[in-house]
Design a protein that fits this description.
Elements lengths: L20 E4 L5 E2 L15 E4 L38 H7 L8 E6 L5 H14 L4 E5 L4 H10 L7 E5 L3 H11 L3 E5 L16 H18 L3 E5 L12 H5 L2 E6 L6 E9 L7 E7 L2 E4 L18 E8 L2 E13 L7 E4 L3 H14 L7 E7 L11 H13 L7 E3 L2 E2 L5 E2 L4 H10 L4 E5 L13 E5 L2 H9 L6
Parallel strand pairs: 4-8, 4-9, 5-6, 5-7, 7-8, 15-16, 17-20, 20-21
Antiparallel strand pairs: 1-2, 1-3, 9-10, 10-11, 11-12, 13-14, 14-16, 18-19
Helix pairs in contact: 7-8, 8-10
Family: Belongs to the RecA family. RadA subfamily.
Organism: Cellulomonas flavigena (strain ATCC 482 / DSM 20109 / BCRC 11376 / JCM 18109 / NBRC 3775 / NCIMB 8073 / NRS 134)
InterPro entries: AAA+_ATPase, DNA_repair_RadA, P-loop_NTPase, RecA_ATP-bd, Ribosomal_Su5_D2-typ_SF, Ribsml_uS5_D2-typ_fold_subgr, Rubredoxin_2
Length: 473
């Protein structure tokens, strides 16, 4: 007679394994073992150990009593969220009126673009109004910042300067000084002794930013952080850095140009389609309320190969002059050289001119440039490129005071572009008397006084309107 033996299950055999896994802090990708690079977002150093939720349920419990009880929404004070001007009009334009108490602003840009110079000027202007400003630098010594401040006339008694890299010391400065504005240059240089990792690493940047945000919200203290950028132009550090802060601004500019552009890529308190213009020199940085004059030449006589257009930087119209030099080529493959213009769009426009209008450009060298280092990349500048190229090829100047706006299609048609009303208003303000625009534009916009607008359905009509003798009127 056989006996059946019943085995008792081992303790814990019905529970899943509690071996911790690993999770990417950037995108949430999980792995069974640690790797140096995330397999999903390809970010280095972002995979950390994930202990899991644990077997005891949630670890966070309610805290009683609450320090800030919930109140009816109508009783919330909105004065604390009102923006305060910084004294720099172009910066206030981008921020949406100024700095909001408790807001954390991240200003990113390439090295040498002028981030520190701009913020030092902002700090000095705020200090001159009676506010106490704390400027903490982690990249330069206090003496170096003092020399720059003297050069750009950014000295004020209420502007306090400290050179530190330890987060604990910075928080101590905030406790003792109790500033009205805090500027840190830059966030990747500060470290916390409570977190492992090198300066600029994922863990350090997250800890530094979180601590500063906590201090800003609890004290209603506006904080401006300077951030580095990577080779592709994005903000260095973890992507959560951009999610944590309230405003992310990009400071851009060509190394060989004095013009600097400030854009807001994220703004919880204002628009993200405004652009601020600045002029950077050895004497400091100043805002440009009317930067259009930087991108146009003041020629006494009309010169073939030039045409004016108006581009949109956000909602701001900027006039730019396109110059084209067309000369016979001495090499089998003619040159196509550009400066400030998208080379691929120029090649497309030249191909359309040769195919649809019969312009002889295959044996010509074409050099196209903009005035003042302007960057013209939007399709609305196609028509100006075409008129400048034809004008240079035929050695016939365009009409005096002519502005051209429109996108050129592969069939030779002129396509509509957005914001034509603002473009025409800017052209009229600069003294332009003629404009060539896509067909059907006049039905949607109001033509400014003193500006004659010609609608063109294709390149042939645009060239006829732009290069016709002035005496034909």
């Amino acid at each position: 007679m056989s006996q059946t033996t019943t085995r008792r299950p081992r303790a814990g055999a019905d529970r899943p394994s509690e071996r911790p896994g690993f999770r990417c802090t950037e995108c949430g990708w999980t792995a069974a073992k640690w790797v140096g690079r995330c397999g999903e977002c390809q970010e280095w150093g972002s995979v950390v150990e994930d202990a899991g939720p644990g077997s005891g349920g949630p670890r966070t419990v309610a805290v009683a009593p609450t320090r800030n009880p919930a109140r009816p929404i109508e009783e919330i004070d909105v004065e604390s969220a009102t923006a305060r001007p910084t004294g720099v009009d172009e910066l206030d334009r981008v921020l949406g009126g100024g700095l909001v108490p408790g807001a954390v602003v991240l200003l990113a840009g390439e090295p040498g673009v002028g981030k520190s110079t701009l913020l030092l000027d902002v700090a000095a202007r705020a200090a001159r109004t009676g506010r106490k400003v704390l400027y903490v630098t982690g990249e330069e010594s206090a003496a170096q910042v003092r020399l720059r401040a003297g050069r750009i006339h950014a000295l004020a008694p209420s502007l306090l300067l400290a050179s530190e890299t330890d987060l604990g010391i910075v928080l101590g400065h905030i406790e003792s000084v109790d500033p009205d504005l805090l500027v840190l240059d830059s966030v990747q240089t500060f470290t916390s002794a409570q977190v492992e990792g090198s300066p600029g690493g994922v863990a350090q940047v997250r800890e530094v930013t979180a601590a500063l945000i906590t201090a800003a919200k609890s004290r209603a203290l506006p904080v401006v952080l300077v951030g580095h950028v990577t080779k592709d132009g994005s903000v260095a550090g973890p992507r959560t850095l951009e999610h944590l802060v309230d405003v992310v601004c990009q400071f851009e500019g060509e190394r060989h140009s004095r013009l600097r552009l400030l854009r807001a890529t994220k703004n919880r308190y204002g628009p993200t389609d405004e652009v601020g213009c600045f002029d950077l020199s050895e004497h400091g940085i100043v805002g440009l309320a009317d930067p259009s004059g930087l991108f146009t030449s003041r020629l006494v006589n009309d010169v073939p190969g030039t045409c004016l257009t108006v581009t949109l930087e956000g909602r701001r119209p900027l006039a730019a002059e396109v110059q084209a030099l067309v000369a016979p080529s001495v090499v089998p493959n003619p040159r196509r050289t550009t400066s400030g213009v998208d080379g691929s769009r120029l090649a497309m426009v030249l191909a359309v001119l040769q195919r649809r209008l019969g312009a002889r450009l295959a044996d010509q060298d074409v050099y196209v440039s903009t005035v003042g280092g302007a960057r013209v990349v939007e399709p609305a500048a196609d028509l100006a490129l075409a008129l400048a190229a034809v004008s240079g090829r035929e050695n016939v100047a365009v009409h005096t005071g002519l502005v051209a706006v429109g996108e050129v299609g592969l069939a030779g048609e002129i396509r509509p572009v957005p914001g034509v009303g603002r473009r025409l208003a800017e052209a009229a303000r600069l003294g332009c008397t003629r404009a060539v625009v896509p067909s059907g534009t006049l039905a949607e916009v109001t033509v400014p006084e003193g500006l004659r607008v010609v609608e063109a359905a294709d390149l042939a009509a645009a060239v006829l309107a732009g290069l016709a003798p002035a005496s034909s009127d």
